[in-house]
From TrEMBL, chain A:
Keywords: 4Fe-4S, Electron transport, Iron, Iron-sulfur, Metal-binding, Molybdenum, Nitrate assimilation, Oxidoreductase, Periplasm, Signal, Transport. CDD domains: MopB_CT_Formate-Dh_H (cd02790). Its EC number is 1.9.6.1. One of its GO terms (biological process) is nitrate assimilation. It comes from Desulfacinum hydrothermale DSM 13146. PANTHER family: FORMATE DEHYDROGENASE H, RESPIRATORY NITRATE REDUCTASE. InterPro entries: Asp_de-COase-like_dom_sf, CT_Formate-Dh_H, MoPterin_dinucl-bd_dom, Mopterin_OxRdtase, Prok_molybdopt-oxidoreductase. This is nitrate reductase (cytochrome). One of its GO terms (molecular function) is metal ion binding. The lineage of its organism: Bacteria, Pseudomonadati, Thermodesulfobacteriota, Syntrophobacteria, Syntrophobacterales. It is an enzyme of class 1 (oxidoreductase). Residues 413-519 form the Molybdopterin dinucleotide-binding domain. It comes from the Bacteria.
UniProtKB/TrEMBL annotation, chain B:
One of its GO terms (cellular component) is membrane. It comes from Desulfacinum hydrothermale DSM 13146. Gene3D superfamilies: 3.40.50.740, ADC-like domains. One of its GO terms (molecular function) is metal ion binding. One of its GO terms (biological process) is respiratory electron transport chain. Keywords: 4Fe-4S, Iron, Iron-sulfur, Metal-binding, Oxidoreductase. Pfam families: Molybdop_Fe4S4, Molybdopterin. The keyword 4Fe-4S applies. This is Molybdopterin oxidoreductase. The keyword Iron applies. InterPro entries: Mopterin_OxRdtase, Mopterin_OxRdtase_4Fe-4S_dom, Prok_molybdopt-oxidoreductase.
Length: 526, 135
């Protein structure tokens, strides 16, 4: 997030797109309600009539994968009416002229045709956001999990810059992180192209810095992303895999393909706290400690570094993951001598400038938001105050592209996936929690009443849902929360895994799979 | 009776709510929201209120397992760690370091993620390290 949670409550317009905030980030949703109570305009764009849509001043259901068209249409309206922030554009940005040329081509009528959002709604959303004093954008995986994910995010950045809604309190472009420590895993260099602190592996001086600090020769080649690793197995390039606390067999797109690939590995080691479909394929399974059994830090969506503290001893023979990795490293001939999580953290501080000023002692209470370069620095609640990371903010000229797969005669329905309020990701943790399991025991496929009527399906009936990649069986929930011709399915349930159906088509830049859009057909199960 | 209340951070979504784990005789019996956390100020969602339930679940993995034939059998830590290290060394030597790929985890701590990517890059010699941020 460019800004912090509390600032949202003071925005006078919040545009929520591709985030089911009340379900996936309930404590962020509380800020949205606070803002609403203070008179903020709430705008929601989501293919489902999510709870936040019921409280919105304008709520629209855009066609799956049409976000760029919708946003370009809004920006067209803003420019045509002179609602943009000319002073901000001149002082803080570049690339505006090229951007305008593309925006020209998106009059609201065309945007409406592509996105299936009424012209009037496009105009009203544009006006509310542009005319706000402090407009905030909140988004989540509904924006990113597309073959146009990068285009979608850049379009939101365009919108914020166009109106000067960035670099001030209660503004910004605010992605909510799906997992507790996605932010931290990225910050720590759990990515194939960067070391900790987003320092590129391809820059020779940076590589040298880490070679010296780690006393090792490092590779200058950018590594493989998750989906590329799976493809790499099939191509015979990847032979061994170590999986720390993840369940790619349920979480990855085209799950049947993932299973087939993992079965071909010469060696698979999985470190986890529960048996999962992925651990079952492993040659060696190592029992890790849960969050309650170890020390460390997590970094939340607002970049706040907070402590994790040990409450109990690890269950059975389980061990904290940092000890497991240390002991493995010593055995493969690269010595690691850490005696505590804090010792590792101190090394992180030395090598990661944005974390340098954050110590365990300083986050004993509230935590601190990075960047925090020195131990007397107060942390940074919002980014891009006087300048952007690259200097001037760059407008990107982005044309609309269709999703990789759209419905046709053979697969006539759109399918989109997401979370439910009681469960989390692949359900490894929530489905073994009695009170959460009780809330939702099985997958429910959302289907519009008219579609249900046409297929002769009632609430609670079982249907077979098939895509070009696989078939699952699911119980139908008839609801107008979802639009006609669209189906929604949560992905928590391994026995009817939505990701058997989803498309592994990737965004060409960031390689995110298109979980949010694929084409399926439905048959009544016998 | 031994009672402890330990302040920590919720393991579920990216909000990062502060909560107390209430521990009685080595078992976590409930969670309580931190009133002073700037994230949640005394509130939790349904997942946070139940964030302790999976910790003591009987299905937890508690021993290392090694595959033997079609099944997996319990092993000692030394056996299991030796098996992983020798296979990683063998595959790295046979096919090169880029034949090894590692998933780090958005569920694990910063310290663990740091160490896993350091292990990938410095000990194995590959940048093939990624996690489910995109998923």
């Amino acid at each position: 997030m460019t800004n912090s949670f509390d600032e949202l409550a003071d925005a006078d317009c919040i545009f929520i797109i591709g985030s089911n905030t009340t379900v996936a980030h309930p404590l962020v949703a509380t800020r949205l309600y606070q803002a609403k109570a203070k008179g903020a305009k709430i705008l929601v764009a989501d293919p489902r009539k999510i709870q936040m849509a019921l409280f919105a001043d304008v709520a629209v259901r855009q066609r799956l994968g049409s976000d760029v068209a919708l946003l370009n249409g809004m920006m067209h309206v803003i420019v045509k009416n002179g609602w943009h922030n000319q002073a901000f554009i001149e002082e803080r940005t570049e690339g505006f002229e090229d951007f305008l040329k593309v925006i020209e081509q998106f009059p609201p009528e065309r945007a409406s045709e592509l996105s299936e959002v009424a012209v009037d709604d496009i105009v009203r959303m544009a006006e509310y956001y542009a005319k706000a004093q402090n407009g905030s954008i909140v988004y989540c995986m509904g924006i990113t999990q597309h073959t146009t994910g990068v285009d979608n995010v850049k379009s939101l950045a365009n919108l914020a810059m166009l109106c000067g809604h960035i670099g001030r309190p209660s503004t910004g472009v605010n992605p909510l992180r799906g997992q507790n420590n996605v932010q931290g895993a990225c910050d720590m260099g759990g990515l194939p192209n960067v070391y900790p602190g987003y320092q590129a592996v391809t820059v020779p001086e940076i590589k040298e810095k880490f070679e010296k600090a780690w006393n090792a020769t490092l590779s200058a080649n950018v590594g493989l992303t998750v989906v590329e690793m799976v493809n790499g197995i099939e191509e015979g390039k990847v032979k061994a895999m170590v999986v720390l606390g993840e369940n790619p067999l349920v979480s990855d797109p085209n799950a049947g393909h993932v299973r087939h690939a993992l079965e071909q590995l010469e060696f698979l080691c999985v470190i986890d706290i529960f048996p999962t479909p992925t651990t079952q394929l492993a040659h060696v399974v190592l029992p890790g400690a849960s969050y309650a059994e170890k020390e460390g830090t997590f970094t939340n969506s607002e970049r706040r570094v907070q402590r994790v503290r040990q409450a109990i001893d690890p269950v059975g023979d389980a061990r904290p993951d940092w000890q497991i990795i240390r002991d493995l490293s010593n055995r493969v001939g690269y010595p690691m001598k850490y005696g505590s999580a804090e010792e590792i953290y101190e090394e992180i501080r030395q090598l990661t400038p944005s974390y340098a000023g954050i110590t365990y002692e300083r986050i004993e209470g509230e935590g601190l938001c990075w960047p925090c370069p020195t131990t007397d620095h107060p942390g940074t609640p919002y980014l891009h105050k006087d300048r952007f990371a690259r200097g001037k903010g760059l407008f990107h000229a982005i044309d609309y592209r269709e999703p990789a797969e759209i419905p046709d005669a053979a697969y006539p329905f759109w399918l989109t996936t997401g979370r439910s309020y009681a469960h989390y990701h692949t359900g490894t943790l929530t489905r073994v929690s009695a009170h959460l399991d009780r809330e939702m025991r099985e997958v429910l496929l959302e289907m519009h009443p008219e579609d249900a009527g046409a297929y002769g399906v009632k609430d609670g009936d079982m249907v077979r849902v098939s895509s070009r990649r696989g078939t699952v069986t699911a119980k139908v929930q008839v609801t107008d929360r979802i639009g006609k011709g669209v189906l929604f399915m949560p992905f928590h349930f391994a026995e009817s895994a939505a990701n058997v159906l989803t498309n592994a088509a990737l965004d060409p830049v960031c390689k995110i799979p298109e979980y949010k859009v694929c084409a399926v057909k439905v048959e009544k199960a016998a | 009776m031994d009672y402890r209340s330990v302040l920590t951070t919720c393991p579920y979504c990216g909000c990062g709510c502060g909560l107390y784990l209430e521990v009685v005789d080595g078992r976590i019996v409930q969670t309580l929201p931190s009133k002073t956390s700037p994230v949640n100020r005394g509130r939790l969602c349904i997942k946070g209120w139940n964030a302790h339930e999976f910790v003591h679940h009987p299905r937890r993995l508690t021993r290392p397992l090694i595959r033997r034939g079609d099944g997996q059998v319990e092993a000692s830590w030394d056996e299991a760690l030796d098996a992983v290290a020798s296979e990683l060394k063998r595959i790295k030597e046979t096919y090169g370091p880029d034949s090894v790929a590692l998933f780090s985890s958005a569920k694990c701590t910063n310290e663990e993620n740091y160490l896993l990517q350091k292990f990938a890059r410095a000990a194995i010699g590959t940048n093939n390290v990624d996690h489910c941020a995109r998923l």
